[in-house]
Amino acid sequence: MKISVIGTGYxxxxxxxxxxxxxxxxxCVDIDKEKIEKLKKGIPTIYEPGLKExxxxxxxxxxxxxxxxxxxxxxxxxxxxIAVGTPESESGEADMKAVWDVAKNIGKYINGYKIIINKxxxxxxxxxxxxxxxxxxxxxxxxxxxxxxxxxxxxxGSAISDFLSPDRIVIGSDNHNPAKIITRLYEPLNAPIITxxxxxxxxxxxxxxxxxxxxxxFVNEIANLCEVAGANVEDVATGxxxxxxxxxxxxxxxxxxxxxxxxKDTIALVSTGKKFGxxxxxxxxxxxxxxxxxxxxxxxxSKFFKSRLENKKFGIWGTSFKPNTDDMRESPxxxxxxxxxxxxxxxxxxxxxxxxxxxxxxxxxxxxFSNAYDAIVDCDALVIITEWDEFKQVNFSKxxxxxxxxxxxxxxxxYDLNYMKxxxxxxxxxxxxxxL
Length: 436
Ligand code: UGA
Description:
The chain is α/β, with parallel strands linked by helices.
């Protein structure tokens, strides 16, 4: 099938590349010329494990091409994926400008029957709006088209494998025929396919993200209770998670969720509820708990040093919002570093891939290191914010020697309490007893 994917962010680029890898002819379109030039050369514009190899392979097979012309992409394809950003607007609602712009252009350049697929995360009712905009912008010669909602469930850092082996594929369509065509497109993945109406498909996406965010905030509240009650949140989460109805995933307590999806989508869902006159209390609470969680972690550090952080030096490991990405959007590290700077503490940071992104935010206000050990030399404590694999098996005697005192604050519960005790560290994590 001839496909165009409009928007080459995380979702668009991964979707386009993977669809071409399944044997489809795909044109990835973006108005950003610089991005398109890089992509044409096989240079990924985002950090995503495995993407470069697939990109180069499919460019060389002539199945994957790139263009900065929306007109070209629209005219040359039978299926058009809209995969542009829907960032948070000032009011909290999803900012739909980019989606509406693409819809206008589809109306303008449509030259035959097309299926328009909404891949972007869009509020319930957006499919109808896309249909209206296309119809309104079509010239005298009317062409038939169908709108389908096909939300994505890709996680940054594992987006390729999430695309190729999904838990489910959701296809929302108000007509049988386009749903059948899109079902065929995904058949090679051998995944469960759910077909429903457009509005339900749009809501499945938001409800899934909000539920996962709530699961994280829930376990973080239990972690806070564990701390005061003297229990261990890891054991509590394991005990809960083994119940198949609960499930063990997304029960890792820590400093809360960040990224470009959960924070924005939870706020947007609450805002959609308000629009319809309904107050989503559980999601609102999950948002509030998440905001507090990073502050509580900082307060633990501050309390340990009796609120005297001025001129103390902290080595921070990990600044991206989670491992395997350089994405800093809504990362807990940003708020935590700001709190340190407010107290005039000195900050050294190391992250395996997010240094450049971190520099964009903090410029010369903090110190950057290209090696985890160099970042902690003579520091008053090591602070772990992102659980990168390379922090799992560190040389602890080296860490102990380099720090000015053997103190670790761990926002991601990476290490065993007894082991830390044996090694002689003071070790403060989340929802577990402090090793002092
Ligand atoms: C999330 C969803 O998992 C995807 O299914 C969805 O497609 C995507 O949003 C999206 O809407 O585009 P992503 O934001 O890439 O994916 O990252 P996750 O792996 O879900 O992690 C989100 C945040 O939750 C991270 O900050 C992570 O550290 C945190 N988290 C995750 C926890 O604090 N505890 C956990 O147990 C799991």
